[in-house]
Inverse folding.
């Protein structure tokens, strides 16, 4: 049986139908068509499917879609800022933080959850922020460097905007 | 097989729905039940949810702590008054799991999960069940019969430990996020520098968290120095039956138990 569900996806009101018991990942990909969210394990283990629900990182594969009714969901498809990439995306490219790229959407959203509340993270805080996200290519170091660099970029951008 | 999702505003209604159907499961944070649903577990026919605000309530006074069963690890990490529990909450998964994983769910998490339940066992927590025949029972009793079906848990409560008397260590092969080879929690109140009424609990050692009663007895009246804790270390594995699993062998768990217990009791890094 399908149930109607409404939420805000990357700032846009979205209405769809979800099978009873469906997880958010399957609903985003199959019902809404947001293919930027990737599925890896469907067990809440790999972090590939990380999205933000009301600003908090959530594993969409183990999140009941119905529980997201009325909430704000952010995926990597909504990360760019107008015509520009998000500093995290730019930094990931510059630091070669993606190889096969499959973990990247989840990594970016986990990193965004951190930077949204902390623009001066320590390396340990970055490691903790992505500790639920598995990457089998990079060895993590380029990802950590990219997030730290993006935080510096964001912090300096904010400081410049405050001065202007 | 399709499932039905039933959402209730009151926990008592959810408890009634849960007990009325053999294939009903309560959905807390989803870290356990959604996995089973994704694997099309045929034993699950109905998902029961509750939006009762009491589930997410944290009440901390100078002497007592009450945690709604729906309180998440992230909520505990955001509560300064519960700083003594922060190392435990942080040991549960990564940030996204902590946003979902609940106190109530952890009580039913199969080994090697359940580090938070291990901490609650050392804190001598009680559990209040919801619904008809609601009552308060020791967590130890609930853990002993959790696989035989119990009513819905509404909240847990425990006496707030005196400062610096609660300790927790998680032993894992992968840092910062890995499942437990072993976890140890201890509440060690001191009277005149000696342990008085201490509680020690092990997680990931057996099928559920267990108390280390031999260790508790050996620590009673002792100070926490290297010489005085020797009998407790000698009794570290007395009365417990470590399991073999994919994480570690029973033999290995038995071997490392006194090492990590010593570090915990002496306040050394694990």
């Amino acid at each position: 049986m399908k149930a109607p569900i409404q939420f805000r996806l990357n700032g846009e009101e979205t209405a769809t139908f979800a099978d009873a018991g469906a997880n958010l990942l399957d609903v985003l990909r199959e019902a809404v068509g947001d293919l930027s969210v990737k599925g890896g394990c469907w067990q809440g283990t790999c972090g590939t499917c990380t999205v933000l629900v009301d600003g908090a990182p959530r594993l969409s594969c183990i999140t009941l879609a119905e529980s997201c009714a009325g909430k704000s969901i952010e995926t990597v498809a909504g990360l760019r800022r107008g015509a520009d990439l998000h500093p995290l995306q730019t930094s990931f490219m510059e630091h070669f933080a993606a190889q096969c790229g499959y973990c990247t959407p989840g990594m970016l959203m986990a990193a965004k959850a951190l930077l949204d509340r902390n623009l001066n993270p320590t390396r340990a805080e970055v490691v903790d922020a992505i500790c639920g996200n598995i990457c089998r290519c990079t060895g993590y170091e380029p990802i950590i460097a990219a997030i730290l660099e993006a935080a510096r970029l964001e912090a300096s951008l904010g400081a410049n905007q405050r001065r202007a | 097989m399709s499932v039905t999702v039933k959402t209730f505003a009151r926990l008592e209604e959810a408890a009634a729905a849960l007990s009325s159907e053999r294939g009903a499961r309560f959905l807390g944070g989803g870290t356990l039940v959604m996995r089973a649903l994704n694997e099309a577990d045929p034993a699950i026919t109905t998902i029961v949810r509750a939006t009762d605000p009491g589930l997410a309530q944290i009440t901390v006074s100078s002497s007592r702590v009450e945690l709604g069963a729906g309180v998440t690890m992230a909520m505990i990490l955001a509560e300064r008054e519960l700083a003594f529990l922060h190392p435990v909450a942080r040991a549960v998964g990564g940030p996204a799991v902590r946003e979902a994983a609940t106190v109530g769910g952890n009580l039913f998490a199969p080994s090697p999960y359940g580090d938070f339940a291990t901490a609650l066992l050392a804190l001598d927590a009680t559990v209040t069940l919801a619904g008809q025949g609601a009552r308060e029972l020791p967590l130890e009793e609930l853990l002993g019969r959790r696989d035989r079906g119990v009513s819905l848990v509404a909240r847990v409560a425990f006496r707030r430990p005196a400062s610096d008397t609660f300790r927790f260590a998680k032993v894992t092969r992968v840092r910062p996020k890995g499942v437990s080879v072993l976890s140890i929690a201890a509440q060690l109140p001191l009277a005149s520098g000696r342990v008085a009424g201490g509680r020690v609990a092990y997680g990931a050692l057996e099928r559920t968290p267990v108390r280390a009663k031999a260790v508790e007895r050996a620590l009673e009246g002792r100070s926490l120095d290297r010489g005085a804790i020797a009998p407790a270390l000698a009794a570290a594995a007395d009365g417990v039956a470590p399991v073999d699993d994919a994480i570690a062998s029973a033999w290995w768990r038995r071997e490392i138990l006194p090492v990590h217990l010593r570090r915990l009791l002496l306040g050394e890094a694990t």
In short: The interface with chain A takes residues 2-5, 7, 27, 30-31, 34-35, 37-39, 47, 49, 74, 90, 93-97, 99-100, 176-177 of chain B (CB under 8 Å). The mean pLDDT of chain B is 95. Residues 224 and 266 of chain B are 6 Å apart (CA to CA).
